[in-house]
């Protein structure tokens, strides 16, 4: 049951990044507190969502699960199973769940709020804000910590002792302060909860408030998160979900740990209603400005030009032409996921009280995207005969996926298109890169270049070409047709673009070259199939 609702088209001004060393906004951001009047999804959509979730729950043992979906002004929340198996208490929309690393997004929002107010500089050395952090071989900036590019170590260095009792901010920072940086800042992505604890300490230093107090006043309350708080076991109520893990095929209670030592990197709890409201507040720019939102959702890169697929507090990636902004959480007692499609005004929130459910939550989220946003159009599958075909098809898929995703993000969300090079030259480069003869001469090297051709090291080649193709087709065929390519696939995207160019008499460089056009005809021939993946 797909394509049930019309597309939502949001227009917005965009920025790619703020100049280094200055606040994102010239003046503190003062959000207009206009909250959408939300309505239920149509009954047939609600039934389809229920069926999708229950089909996933039937795959393997589970205890409790909550799912929330927001698309524009439409909202749906479902709760399944038990929040407490021993006492037979059901999961409800009011149930609170340990959020784990989704907490990092709250920390990033708080930091960007302070940047907008001119109270914090993204390129400040963290030692100027947290003097208890000892001098290291290299200075580490706030920006680098937000993007996990600061070289700060993560859990792998620690034994089981760090979660056994309550810790304050100083104790949390002290956990990691004695370790040397694992890499020079800016050179390597190292995911680190302890890096975010440093940011939490910086928030406290700048504001004079505790981290929890700041979140309650400036993040939770403005977002309408009524039951969100730091996950202190002493303040949990009967609505909090008990945690479980699978051991030898059986569900057993989770190990009890105190997460106060992970406070700004993984120390909060909230209900599914809270988490969905937070997603909506981000999409509506009610917590930080559009400019700051775009900055948070823009993937950072290492010094040598490799994208990290992580911005400031959020991971980012293309999914069948959708621009995904998300963060997962995994700890004892919990598995969580918050996924946003800012180019399509969608928020999806999921929480389970069973550990290790990342793949299951991702399947549910991807299924919801398919249900709501992808139509029933025929998918054109590539007719592959050899390894060279596979490399060509990989390139076509990445141009389509990144191009359509970035076009939606830039035209309807808070992003903007990167790159500085000329488009005619970019189209020529793509045609040469996907040439069969060149691939056959150096298949491994060519494939490696294709896998990085969307990034800064190649001046965003695939994004610039794919986004131009998407924009051209939207102008010619309309938004509804453009939306169909997420289901129809890259070959349909390329073939329809070439047909539009033929009708519009595009300049020759924008039609690739005859060699690539012939390759597209060969890959397409006899392989048009309707699929429901």
Quick overview:
This protein is α+β, with helices and mostly antiparallel strands and about 525 residues long.
What is the residue-mean pLDDT, rounded to a whole number?
91
DSSP strand content: 5-15%
- Proportion in helices: 40-55%
Global structural class: alpha+beta
> What is the rounded distance between the termini?
12 Å
What's the total helix number?
19
Label this structure with key terms:
533 residues, eight-stranded mixed sheet, three-stranded antiparallel sheet, 15 strands, 40% helix, 14% strand, disordered N terminus, disordered C terminus
Give a structural overview.
The protein is α+β, with helices and mostly antiparallel strands and 533 residues long. The chain is 40% helix and 14% strand. The protein is built from 19 helices and 15 strands. Strands 1, 2, 3, 4, 10, 11, 12 and 13 form an 8-stranded mixed β-sheet that branches. Strands 5-9-6 form a 3-stranded antiparallel β-sheet. Strand 10 and strand 11 form a beta hairpin. Helix 1 runs antiparallel to helix 10, helix 2 packs parallel to helix 5 and helix 15 packs across helix 18. 46% of the residues are buried. The N terminus and C terminus are likely disordered.
């Amino acid at each position: 049951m797909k394509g049930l609702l019309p597309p939502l088209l949001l227009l917005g001004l965009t920025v790619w990044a703020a100049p280094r060393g200055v606040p994102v906004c010239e003046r503190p951001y003062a959000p207009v507190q206009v909250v959408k009047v939300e309505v239920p999804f149509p009954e047939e959509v609600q039934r389809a969502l229920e069926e999708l979730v229950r089909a996933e729950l039937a795959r393997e043992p589970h205890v409790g699960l909550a799912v929330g979906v927001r698309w524009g002004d439409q909202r749906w929340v479902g709760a399944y199973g038990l929040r407490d198996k021993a006492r037979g208490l059901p999961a409800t929309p009011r149930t609170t769940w340990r959020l784990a690393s989704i907490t990092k997004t709250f920390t990033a929002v708080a930091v960007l709020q302070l940047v907008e107010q001119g109270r914090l500089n993204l390129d400040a050395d963290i030692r100027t804000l947290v003097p208890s952090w000892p001098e290291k071989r290299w200075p580490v900036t706030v920006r680098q910590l937000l993007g996990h590019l600061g070289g700060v170590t993560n859990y792998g260095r620690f034994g089981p002792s760090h979660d056994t009792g309550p810790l304050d901010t100083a104790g949390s920072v002290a956990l990691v302060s004695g370790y040397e940086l694992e890499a020079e800042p800016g050179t390597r992505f190292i995911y680190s909860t302890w890096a975010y604890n440093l940011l939490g300490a910086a928030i406290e230093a700048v504001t004079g408030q505790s981290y929890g107090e700041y979140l309650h006043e400036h993040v939770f309350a403005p977002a309408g998160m009524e039951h969100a708080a730091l996950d202190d076991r002493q303040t949990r109520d009967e609505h909090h979900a008990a945690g479980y893990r699978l051991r030898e095929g059986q569900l057993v209670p989770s190990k009890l740990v105190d997460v106060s030592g992970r406070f700004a990197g993984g120390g909060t709890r909230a209900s599914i209603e809270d988490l969905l409201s937070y997603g909506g507040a981000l999409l509506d720019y009610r917590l930080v400005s559009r400019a700051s939102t775009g900055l948070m959702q823009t993937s950072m890169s290492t010094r040598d030009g490799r994208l990290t697929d992580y911005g400031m507090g959020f991971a980012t990636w293309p999914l069948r032409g959708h621009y995904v902004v998300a963060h997962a959480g995994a700890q004892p007692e919990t598995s969580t996921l918050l996924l946003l499609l800012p180019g399509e005004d969608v928020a999806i929130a999921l929480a389970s009280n069973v550990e290790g459910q990342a793949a299951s939550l991702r399947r549910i989220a991807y299924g919801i995207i398919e249900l709501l946003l992808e139509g029933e159009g025929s998918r054109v599958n590539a007719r592959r005969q050899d390894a060279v075909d596979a490399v060509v098809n990989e390139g076509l898929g990445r141009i389509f996926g990144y191009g359509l995703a970035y076009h939606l993000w830039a035209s309807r969300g808070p992003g903007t298109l990167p790159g500085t090079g000329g488009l005619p030259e970019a189209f020529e480069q793509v045609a040469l890169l996907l040439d069969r003869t060149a691939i056959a001469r150096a298949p491994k090297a060519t494939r490696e270049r294709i896998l990085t051709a969307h990034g800064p090291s190649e001046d965003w080649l695939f994004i610039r070409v794919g986004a131009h193709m998407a924009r051209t087709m939207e102008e010619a065929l309309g938004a509804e047709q453009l939306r169909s390519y997420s289901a129809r696939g890259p070959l349909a995207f390329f073939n329809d673009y070439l047909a539009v160019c033929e009708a519009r008499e595009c300049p020759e460089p924008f039609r690739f070259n005859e060699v690539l056009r012939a390759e597209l005809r060969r890959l397409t021939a006899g392989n048009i199939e309707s699929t429901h993946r």
